[in-house]
Amino acid sequence: MAMELPSLKMAPVLLLCFLQLARSSMALPALPGMDRVRWQVDRANRRGPSIGLVMSYIDEDTALQASGYFSPWSVQPFIDLYGRRFHIGSIRGVNVVYALTGQRRLNAAVTVQTLLDIFSVSGIVHYGTAGSSNDSMSFGDVSVPKLVAYTGAWTWKKFKSLKESPTELSFAQYNVPNGGDNLLGSLKYRNEELYSVGKPMEEVFWLPVDSAWFKIAEGLKVNLERCNDTFCLPKTPQVVHGLKGASADMFLDNAEYRNFLFREFGVSTIDEESAAVVMTATSPGVPVIVFRGVSDLAGGEPTWSSTSLMNLASINALKVAVEFIATIGRQKSTPSVQSSNN
User: What is the pLDDT of residues 148-184, one digit of tens each?
Assistant: First the structure.
């Protein structure tokens, strides 16, 4: 009997490990064809925790595939789930599951939620391109924002209604010629309802990235690219930390609204997905960080082509994200998937 006691003591631990392993695949719906996906997910999760890496545009995905940074897991290189492909592998010896979210808020949130619910993910890294509303930032620069906000939620107010907030957008201020009223009235920016573990729902406007991860990102030393196959920038881009970013379900190509966002909110980069990524990861308390490369000036540029700059901005944002993942791996000693064979 004495010899059996150690195994009895270990039984709860073994049961807990089994339940943790099964938790992710059990979250899959009972639909035809899901048994195989469930088996694939369980096998991928047995590698241990991974960094969830997400990007929104095909050009951003192409930059990763062409870079050679990502090494697919030979046992199970990808899992197709809910119309998306989740790539299983490693970057610099760190377990990674990456997926192309697609554009705009809903696509980004659905993809991140799937990563959190189905895969064994220890944090979310988001990289991509952005428009700049800050004249001190240049093409190819990479912003690591400390705060992001969703600036696409509005109360569209009645004509000539009283001003309720100092940051309302009044269309009459942009009449040409100046003066007079505008029947479109004004917009009041709304807060988001944030539901998070262990807290009551709170209304927030600014969403912070993970503070510990942000501190790590501040210490990164990354040499960014100045040239691509098309042309070279006048100066070498820089990594900028601690600015603010904004997201909305629209592509901004308007100089006046660009200036408004910087003037009223202090926003330096503008995209369509970052706020959704941060909010989705923040809800369960999962670390999250954002890297955005400047590909255009959100309507403020006179001649530059955002299309030709997107590749360079994607590459630079990716370089910073990869260095961050490698640093996290060194600190946490996350095992490489290449050592796992089952």
Answer: 999 888 888 888 888 888 888 888 888 888 778 888 8
pLDDT one-digit tens code per residue, 274-332: 999 999 999 999 999 999 999 988 887 765 555 568 889 999 999 999 999 999 988 87
Structure token digits, residue 62: 């192409």
Residue 64, classed as helix, strand or coil, is: helix
pTM for the full model?
A: 0.85
Residue-level length of the chain: 342
Report the C-alpha gap between 153 and 192 in whole angstroms.
Answer: 8
* Gyration radius from the chain CA atoms: 22
- In this predicted structure, the answer to whether residue 209 has a pLDDT above a threshold of 80 is yes
72 preceded by cis ω (within 30°)? no
What is d(CA 70, CA 66) in angstroms, rounded to the nearest whole number? 9
Determine phi and psi for 264, rounding to 5 degrees: -90, -30
Question: How many other CB atoms are found less than 10 A from the CB of residue 30?
Answer: 7
CA distance to 37, 124, 232, 257, 293, per residue, from 275 (Å): 30, 13, 31, 19, 16
The residues, ordered by sequence, that sit 6+ positions from 318 with a Cβ below 8 Å of its Cβ are 60, 63, 64, 67, 69, 127, 291
Helix (H, G, I), strand (E, B) or coil at 117: helix
